[in-house]
Write a structure and sequence with these properties.
The complex is a heterodimer. Chain A is 75% helix and 0% strand. Chain A is mainly α. By secondary structure, chain B is an alpha+beta fold. Helix content of chain B is 61%, strand content 14%. Chain B has six helices and two strands; from the N terminus they run H-H-H-H-E-E-H-H. In chain B, helix 2 (10-20) packs across helix 5. Classes of the chains: A mainly alpha, B alpha+beta. Chains A and B meet through helix 2 and helix 4 of A and helix 3, helix 4 and strand 2 of B.
């Protein structure tokens, strides 16, 4: 029922509800609706009871608003209730970290595949650089045993490091894919009830991490290619496009989150 | 009674009222007002976050129902809430008995002096 149809803005009850709505804006939308509905019904009940007892509407509304207490106190109590405990925040931070680590591992795996392509096209020297430092006889014997056709210890070392830069990364990527699949499967089946940090936080962290990785590997790759020996650049530049793609994807998601206003804080429930 | 004293026992009071008769927030507040003849000074708005918190804890359950032409959130106690209420009542009675045993004049001493 609409009260004070003539000028609702002057009604103490309407003013109270307007103020409460404004103060609760930071909270969960459903909790906001629930509390507003309850408060509105409460105030109108109280006004009706006072009018039935002989009070005028203006007095009845003023009394009802005074009895229910300051909107700031009510909003503060409600928002305080919605605030999650520290344990929940830590759980979500850990869960988000595990998910991001799994995604990072997948990216490392893709960079391993690209490193493998560079290695196949440009040779082991494009992916690894054995440098000029002395190599121990024991290591040389091991590398030459693995790569007998390498011709020299340094070439065998380069071949071994290039293989490691490729296959170890692919192995990490496979683990990442498995981890992502397990997490997604458990969440879909409702067996993993741990929530994540707000999407905009996760996306922003991922975008920053991938941007940093892209810049870092690009600088090292250019250094290896143009400044240093001109060898081993592939181990860095194989990761740059993957990190750059990750940065773009997560940055776009973060922008979408911002535009959609989905940077919803962690809730105690709901 | 001062507001902060009431706040310390608000859960017990709310669980007790709702356990005896499920109802919406205003009905709970009215029952509280009537049963205490208004002697429990309480900011009425404080009741709603308290009800929501008890629901978060699984001690109350609520559902929206139309009552007298308005949409109301009706609260009732859960089995867990009833157990919690019994425990709270035991604690309260123990506290009352303990305080009472200290503050009540000891008749035997009073008579002998």
């Amino acid at each position: 029922m609409i009260r004070n149809e003539g000028n609702g803005a002057e009604s103490p009850v309407e003013q109270y509800l307007d103020e409460l709505t404004r103060l609760l804006a930071a909270g969960h939308p459903r909790h906001l609706r629930y509390l507003l509905s309850e408060t509105e019904a409460h105030l109108h009940d109280d006004v009706d009871a006072a009018i039935a007892a002989g009070a005028g509407r203006a007095d009845a509304e003023a009394q009802a608003v005074a009895r229910i207490g300051a909107p700031e106190a009510l909003a503060h109590a409600e928002l305080d209730r919605q605030r999650p405990p520290l344990r929940e925040i830590v759980r979500r931070a850990v869960a988000s970290g595990v998910l991001l680590a799994a995604i990072g591992a997948v990216a490392i795996g893709i960079s391993g595949v690209i490193a493998g392509v560079i290695r196949a096209i440009g040779g082991a020297g494009a992916v690894a650089d054995a440098g000029r430092s002395p190599l121990s006889a024991t290591d040389c014997a091991r590398w030459l045993a693995i790569y007998p056709g390498a011709g020299s210890c340094r070439a065998a070392a380069t071949a071994d490091w290039a293989a490691e830069a490729t296959y170890y990364r692919i192995a990490v990527g496979v683990l990442g894919v498995l981890a992502v699949a397990v997490i997604a499967g458990l969440r879909r089946r409702g067996r993993l009830s741990i929530g994540l940090l707000p999407r905009i936080v996760v996306d922003s962290i991922a975008a920053a991490a991938f941007t940093g990785a892209a810049a870092w590997t690009l600088v090292l790759g250019i250094d290896a290619l143009a400044v240093s020996s001109g060898r081993g650049w592939g181990q860095w530049l194989s990761a740059t496009p993957v990190a750059l793609a990750g940065a773009v994807v997560f940055a776009m998601r973060a922008v979408q989150d911002l535009r959609a206003g989905s940077g919803e804080p962690i809730r105690a429930r709901g | 009674m001062k507001v902060d004293r009431v706040k310390g026992h608000l859960d017990l009071v709310l669980l007790s009222i709702i356990d005896q008769e499920p109802g919406h927030g205003y009905a709970v507040i009215t029952a509280l007002r009537e049963r205490t003849n208004g002697n429990l000074a309480l900011t009425e708005g404080a009741v709603y976050p308290a009800l929501h918190r008890l629901e978060d804890l699984g001690l109350l359950i609520s559902e929206w129902m139309p009552v007298a032409g308005r949409r109301r959130r009706i609260y009732r106690t859960t089995p867990t809430g009833r157990s919690a209420l019994r425990a709270e009542m035991r604690d309260w009675q123990a506290l009352v008995a303990a305080v009472d045993s200290v503050v009540r004049p000891r008749t035997s001493l009073a008579a002998s002096s």
